[in-house]
Amino acid sequence: MTLTGVGLYGLLAFEVARRTGEIGIRSALGARPRDIFRLVVGRGLRLTATGIVLGIFGAVAAGSLFAKFLFGVQQTDSLTFLVVSITLFAAAFLACYIPARRAMRVDPMVALRYE
What we know:
Layout: H1 2-18, H2 20-28, H3 33-69, H4 78-104, H5 108-114
Helix pairs in contact: 1-4, 2-5, 3-4
């Protein structure tokens, strides 16, 4: 879980640093800090949702394999999938929060001079 959070944080922090000029232009053209926050967090949560969906498909496939070899293991345990998905989604939101807050505070003039 920690590795997932650190990896997503690193990816989004890099993306915010790379897109500083774009964020500055958006701010200069009237984007509110709330819009910038939604942009960054939305990107991270879309990546997370894609990973969770692919992970659930992989877990169902692996569950059918493990159900054949291990006694008492069910192919699908929807409660476990739900709890893990919610936990990963919450960790991803926390990992997205810091870069999104940093992006909200970008000064348009500094960002436009950055390039």
